[in-house]
Amino acid sequence: MTAGSYHAMLCQRLGPPDVLEMAELPRQPLKPGEVRIAVRVAGVNFPDLLQVAGQYQHKPPLPFVPGFEAAGEIIDLAGDVQGWQAGDAVLLRGTGAYAEEMIAPAAALLPKPADWSWDEAAAFPVAASTAWVALLPRGRLQAGETLLVLGAGGGTGLAAVSLGAGCGAHVVAVASSPVKRAAAQAAGAAICLDPAVAGWEQAVQADLVFDPVGGALFTTAWKALKPGGRWLVVGFAGGTIPRLPANRLLLKEAELIGVRAGEQGRRNPAAAKALDAGLRAWLVGSERRRPLIGAVYRLDEAATALRQLADRKAVGKLVLHPR
Ligand SMILES: NC(=O)c1ccc[n+]([C@@H]2O[C@H](COP(=O)([O-])OP(=O)(O)OC[C@H]3O[C@@H](n4cnc5c(N)ncnc54)[C@H](OP(=O)(O)O)[C@@H]3O)[C@@H](O)[C@H]2O)c1
C-alpha cells in the first residue's frame, strides 16, 4: 500500500514556527522492521521548537516534518514485523509526527491503553520517557527523598511530578502561574512554589532536582540543593545555559547529571529495554499519571501551538489533530 499521499507540516527552512507549511507528500515504502501509522493525534514538545529553529542537537536535513510523538492506528507493516497487526491502537516516540501518517520502527510502539484518550496517549511518550530516564536510571530517586521540580507546569515537569510522587518522593514543584501550580498539585506535588516570590528556595532542601529550565532559575534553585544532592540537567527552556563554577560542586559534594532520554536507549539496548518496561508499567498506573492536555490545535495550527510553548503559556501538553 505504498501508492498515495498524505498531508504534513513541512519545515523547508529553519526559523520561527511560522516557517512550517502544509504540504502533500508521497508515501514512502516501508523498510524491514517498520510500520505505517495513521496519526490521530501528534504531541507538541519544546524540542520541536528548537529543531525548527535549527537549535536542537539533532539536525535533520531540510526539508523535514517535525514532531517526536504521536498516537494512532497501524495501517501497514513490513513483512518481518511481529506482535502487531493492522488496526492496533498505538502510541510512539518517532520522527515526522506533524502529519496524517508517519513511519516508525515497530520497536518504538507501545499499546494505547483503552481507557486513555487519543490526546492523552499522544502526549505521553516524550515527557514520560524524559522523566523516567531522568529520575530513575540517571537520578536514582528513592522513596522518601525530596524531589524539586522546576518548570513543573510544563510537559516534562508535570511528568516528573507525577512519576516522582508515584515513586514515594516528597515533591516540591516550582511554577510561575497559579494554573501551572494547580496542575502540579493535581499531579502529586506536596508543595507548590512561585519562583517570583523572593526567598522561595530557602524553604526547600532537595535531594534531587529536575531542571528543564536552566537560566537564572538555576542559580537561585542551586541554593535549595542539599549537601550531597543530585542535579538533573534536562533542558534550557529559559533560553540560557547556566554556568556553574566547579567549586560549587565541591562545596556541596553535589552531583551534576546530564539527561538525554532519547540518546540513552540508542546507545545502550539494555537501557532501551528498561525504558520500554518502565513506560508500559506507567501506562497501567493511576489516573494521576495521565498527561494533562492544556490545549488542542488542528495540524495546520502547529505554529500557534509552538508559539504557546515559546511564550511560556502552555500548561501541561499541547496536541495537534491532523483530521
Ligand atoms: N534531556 C532530554 O532528554 C529532554 C527531553 C525532552 C525535553 N527536553 C528539554 O526540556 C526543556 C523543557 O521541555 P518541556 O517539554 O517541559 O517544555 P514546556 O512544556 O514548554 O515547559 C518548560 C517550562 O519552562 C519554564 N520556562 C521558563 N522560562 C521559559 C521561557 N523563556 N520559555 C519557555 N519556558 C520557560 C516554563 O515554566 P514556568 O512558566 O513555570 O517558569 C515552562 O512551563 C526544553 O529545553 C526541552 O528541549 C530535554
Set down the secondary structure blueprint.
Elements: E1 5-11, E2 20-26, E3 34-44, H1 46-52, E4 69-77, E5 89-93, E6 101-105, E7 109-111, H2 118-122, H3 125-138, E8 146-149, H4 155-166, E9 170-174, H5 178-186, E10 191-193, E11 206-211, H6 215-222, E12 225-233, H7 246-252, E13 255-258, H8 261-267, H9 269-283, E14 293-298, H10 302-310, E15 317-321
Parallel strand pairs: 8-9, 8-11, 9-10, 11-12, 12-13, 14-15
Antiparallel strand pairs: 1-2, 3-4, 3-6, 3-15, 4-5, 5-7
Helix pairs in contact: 3-4, 3-9, 8-9
Structure description:
With 323 residues, this protein is an alpha/beta fold. It folds into two domains: 5-124 and 290-321, Medium-chain alcohol dehydrogenases, catalytic domain (Quinone Oxidoreductase, Chain A, domain 1), CATH 3.90.180.10; 127-263, NAD(P)-binding Rossmann-like Domain (Rossmann fold), CATH 3.40.50.720. The chain has helices spanning 46-52, 118-122, 125-138, 155-166, 178-186, 215-222, 246-252, 261-267, 269-283, 302-310; strands spanning 5-11, 20-26, 34-44, 69-77, 89-93, 101-105, 109-111, 146-149, 170-174, 191-193, 206-211, 225-233, 255-258, 293-298, 317-321. The strands form three sheets. Strands 3, 4, 5, 6, 7, 14 and 15 form a seven-stranded mixed beta sheet that branches. It has a six-stranded parallel beta sheet with strand order 10-9-8-11-12-13, sandwiched between helices. Strands 1-2 form a two-stranded antiparallel ribbon. Strand 12, helix 7 and strand 13 (255-258) form a beta-alpha-beta unit. Helix 3 (125-138) crosses helix 9 (269-283) and helix 8 (261-267) packs across helix 9 (269-283). The longest helix has 15 residues, at 269-283. It starts with a strand and ends with a strand. The relative contact order is 0.15. The mean pLDDT is 96. NADP nicotinamide-adenine-dinucleotide phosphate is lined by residues 45-47, 50, 126, 130, 151, 153-157, 175-176, 180, 212-213, 234-239, 259-261, 309, 312, 314.
